Amino acid sequence: MKIVTWNINGVKARLETALAWLTHNPADVVCLQEIKTVDEGFPALEFQGLGYNVATHGQKGFNGVALLSKTPLEDVQRGLPGDENDAHARYMEATVMGGKEAVRIGCLYLPNGNPLGTGKFTYKLAWMRRLEDHARKLLADEMPLVLAGDYNVIPTPEDAKRPGAWRGDALFQPESRAAYRRLIHLGLTDGVRACHPEPGLYTFWDYQAGAFQKDDGIRIDHLLLSPQAADRLTGAGIAKEARAMEKPSDHTPAWVELALG
């Protein structure tokens, strides 16, 4: 099973790019973030034309996540538990079958948190605590689990071309990185890092100042695997070529492959 995560930065604006990339890089499950549309506006028919079942948790103008799967999406749940007043569409999960094995997939778009010193950073850290609580409950089920998405966290200095440039950013604050480590310490494995420990791996390049041409990137899109999923990990990577396509997102897809029975 190949599982892809991709912050699409507006699914309508990137639709042709997404369809073209998925046509040449077929995946079993695709987690999309920042779809920037309500559910009714999501171009489901176009993705269904590639053989995907589609579930969305949309929001007008910003945020929004979607799950695409070549097999039916079962037990779909929308929203991250822990705050009934949180109206942001940032999380959904579902179960998919890989052969005879079931895998739980969580698709997340973690808050950015900027600017520092505001309620946005407080919201980011609170959201991460809720994610930690929810991940702990999911892990207790002992089902293969993949939590994939735009985490808006640069985990280590090796995950940025110029780490010093991010020291005043919410993505690289000690509190953000500590919250990410707490997730890892629950027993989760960073799928890409497990296969590629080398530096120079990035998933985001700003549109400004020729960042992509200079490879001035950061790695903030992650696929975290439960022990049961990590045991089945056979490969992972970052599809840098998608960032060079026409009308690209500022993020590029990252992926893992699991050997399922």
What is this structure's SSE topology?
Elements: E1 2-7, H1 15-24, E2 29-33, H2 44-48, E3 53-57, E4 65-69, E5 74-78, E6 91-98, E7 101-109, H3 119-140, E8 145-150, H4 174-185, E9 189-190, H5 191-195, E10 221-225, H6 227-230, E11 233-238, E12 254-258
Task: Describe this protein's structure.
With 261 residues, this protein is of the alpha+beta class. It has a single domain (2-258), classed as Endonuclease/exonuclease/phosphatase (Deoxyribonuclease I, Chain A), CATH 3.60.10. It has 6 helices and 12 strands. The protein has a 6-stranded mixed beta sheet. Strand 6 and strand 7 form a beta hairpin. Helix 3 (119-140) runs parallel beside helix 4 (174-185). The mean pLDDT is 97.
Please supply descriptive tags for the structure shown above.
single chain; 261 residues; alpha+beta; Deoxyribonuclease I, Chain A; globular
The CATH class name reads Alpha Beta
Tell me about the biggest sheet?
Answer: 6 strands, mixed
How does the helix and strand content classify structurally? alpha+beta
- Provide the residue-averaged pLDDT: 97
What percentage of amino acids are in beta strands?
A: 25-35%
Domain module tally = 1
How are the strands of the biggest sheet laid out side by side?
3-4-2-1-12-11
Order of helices and strands: EHEHEEEEEHEHEHEHEE
Overall geometric form = globular
Please state the second-level CATH architecture: 4-Layer Sandwich
Number of helices: 6
The helix content, as a percent range, equals 10-25%
Global Rg: 17 Å
